[in-house]
Amino acid sequence: MLMRNIKFILFTFCLAFSLTTHAASILDSLFHQSSDPVAGNPKGKLTIVEFFDYQCAHCINMASIIQTIIKQNPDVRIVFKEYPIRGPMSELASRAALAANMQGKYYTLHHALLTTDKDINEKNILVIAKANGLDAAKLKKDMNSKTVKDMIQVNLALAKELGIAGTPAFFIGKTNAQKTEDVNFVLGEMTQAEVKEALKKSGS
User: Fold this and answer.
1) In three state form, how does the secondary structure of the chain look?
2) For 63-110, what is each residue's pLDDT tens digit?
């Protein structure tokens, strides 16, 4: 716990430094990037932004918690930032999920990939996609498109600018937040209670 607190303090300092220079632009990139997949209530007053990797054990643990948050909080929107930092298979999964968004099934495939007991590879991703009602041939084509690859590069650049080195990383605040100090940052896995507390703090 002490180590996590130290990491939080160090990151908060770096975040404050980078955000004060162009806060409005950063907040817009975090909360309102038009290409980002969104789950929950798209017009929710509170937003959770999650940077994650499909091969991150802590991100996998968060999958059921995020799903419950969506079900129990009708005024919350979740913005997903694909952040594949654990190798080629992580990037492959991210490209597949973003391609699924083109079929209106981002969250379906996203959650399936995080909770599968299969290894993450192209064959299994396509099997999982087909089992969840996606057009596997279209998915394979779209996941290799420049559009999808560019989306990931945008996220990687934003994460670098913010100094995010690990996953999961969360930014939680009012959807219309105008000041960076109104956005709460959490690095690492959270319990259900901690997410609820962060939402409560953000909404007050």
Assistant:
1) CHHHHHHHHHHHHHHHHHHHHCHHHHHHHHHCCCCCCEEECCCCCEEEEEEECCCCHHHHHHHHHHHHHHHHCCCEEEEEEECCCCCHHHHHHHHHHHHHHCCCCHHHHHHHHHHCCCCCCHHHHHHHHHHCCCCHHHHHHHCCCHHHHHHHHHHHHHHHHHCCCCCCEEEEEECCCCCHHHCEEEECCCCHHHHHHHHHHHHC
2) 999 999 999 999 999 999 999 999 999 999 999 999 999 999 999 999
pLDDT at residue number 56: 97
Q: What is the pTM of this model?
A: 0.89
Query: How confident is the model over 97-154, as pLDDT tens digits?
Result: 999 999 999 999 999 999 999 999 999 999 999 999 999 999 999 999 999 999 999 9
> Which structural domains are found in the chain, ordered by start?
44-203 (3.40.30.10)
